[in-house]
Amino acid sequence: MAVKNVIKLAKAQVNQISDPWLQGSITQITGWVDKMEIPKDYKKLIDMCRFFYKHDPIAGSVINKMVDMSMSEMKNRQGDCTEEEFLVYDSLADKLQNFYRDVCLEYLLSGLVVPQYEWVRKPGDEVSYKINSRRRITVPDNIWFRDPATIRVEKSVIPNKRYYYVKIDHEMVNFIKTEGKRKMVHMIKSYMNF
């Protein structure tokens, strides 16, 4: 009786394998139902990667797990730093930890990360309660990365050298030419009166 059940199980497994040419379900070879091609344009490729990351639960989960496994808690060691320098570095750890996680995710999705940051001068007590409030410290305040679809990479005549340019859309150019000038003048005047 046990042999008969094994034979039925084997037949059932063999019957599941069918000829895809007869059913028309091979899509990438024949293109009958769906023709999925990898786009040659970098922006379209990034859009496709982001689409699968957002809509495919397996792909999104795998990428998120890869990011989680690659990130560990950032801990600073004082080493040769002064106490004040260590407090500044320690105050930036959480902001940088979140930024590094986002950078890792963006790198896995697009393969290109162009970071940007702004420096600001803050009173010492805003950085750490242990630092004198009269002390002014310059720290990175706003840290982000650019959208890789807006970056243009060009080869140079020199081997292994590339030039990177930021594509500015027409709306931004129009803003800079019209409203940007007025707002900038207003900001400068308000700053001078301050």
Model description:
- With 194 residues, the protein is α+β, with helices and mostly antiparallel strands.
- It has helices at residues 2-16, 20-23, 27-30, 42-55, 57-70, 83-110, 124-127, 170-193; strands at residues 114-123, 136-146, 151-155, 162-166.
- The chain has a domain at 41-161.
- It contains eight helices and four strands; from the N terminus they run ααααααβαβββα.
- A two-stranded antiparallel ribbon has the order 1-2.
- A hairpin with a 6-residue loop joins β3 and β4.
- α5 runs antiparallel to α6.
- Mean pLDDT is 76; it is low at 9-34.
Based on the model shown, name its key terms:
194 residues, alpha+beta, two-stranded antiparallel sheet, extended
Topology:
Layout: H1 2-16, H2 20-23, H3 27-30, H4 42-55, H5 57-70, H6 83-110, E1 114-123, H7 124-127, E2 136-146, E3 151-155, E4 162-166, H8 170-193
Antiparallel strand pairs: 1-2, 3-4
Q: Main beta sheet, described?
A: 2 strands, antiparallel
Structural class: alpha+beta
Average pLDDT confidence is: 76
Approximately what portion of the residues adopt beta-strand conformation?
Answer: 15-25%
Low-confidence stretches: 9-34
**H-E order:** HHHHHHEHEEEH
Radius of gyration: 28 Å
Amount of helix: 55-70%
Number of strands: 4
Q: DSSP helix count?
A: 8
Global outline: extended
Query: What is the CA-CA span between the terminal residues?
Result: 94 Å
Q: Provide the spatial order of strands within the biggest beta sheet.
A: 1-2
